[in-house]
Amino acid sequence: MARHDTSKSGWLEHSARVVTAWTGSSQAFAAAVGVIIVWALLGPIFHFSDTWQLVINTGTTIVTFLMVFLIQRSQNKDSQAVHLKLNEIVAVLQGASNRLINVEDLTEHEVVTLHRHYQTLAEIAKRDTTLTASHSVEEAETRSARKRARRPGLTE
């Protein structure tokens, strides 16, 4: 379902998408190598002057500056798409904790708390001899306690 936006931002987004796709291609790499070769071959003609060096330095600086923004744009969009797909999986998967939907929007403290929650779950799972998964620390602790109660002499 592709949308074609004719506004200024739509044009900019389309241009960024096209440039991002091209700069990641073999043709772009070949063009960059070609520019470097031409620049190197022109060195003797310009007597390897400061201006000759300035041309390549300025050009590469400008390209690098612009590429930083293109790469960040691409990573932001890819990251958002992955988050949306994961949110969909969490939302529809029975037993999955809905606390994980939009987890990327939590504060750093909340993420650390959630991380500790899953570390505890992993530790409980390591003690468990079955491969049965549970979706909460509370359930895992309850199951683990029941199993220990059924097996006299089992200690942690």
In summary, what is this structure?
The chain has helices at 8-23, 26-42, 50-92, 108-127, 137-150.
Report what the structure shows.
By secondary structure, the chain is mainly α. Helix content is 71%, strand content 0%. The termini are far apart.
Shape: elongated
Helicity level, as a percent range?
Answer: over 70%
Low-confidence stretches: none
- What's the tally of helices? 5
Q: Label the structural class.
A: mainly alpha
SSE string, helices as H and strands as E = HHHHH
Average pLDDT figure = 84
User: What does the main sheet amount to?
Assistant: none
Distance between the termini: 55 Å
Q: Per DSSP, what share of the residues sits in E-state strands of 2 or more residues? A: under 5%
Query: Total strand count, please?
Result: 0
- CA-atom Rg in angstroms: 27 Å
Question: Which helices and strands occur, and which strands form pairs?
Answer:
Layout: H1 8-23, H2 26-42, H3 50-92, H4 108-127, H5 137-150
Helix pairs in contact: 1-3, 4-5
Structure characteristics:
5 helices; mainly alpha; 0% strand; 156 residues
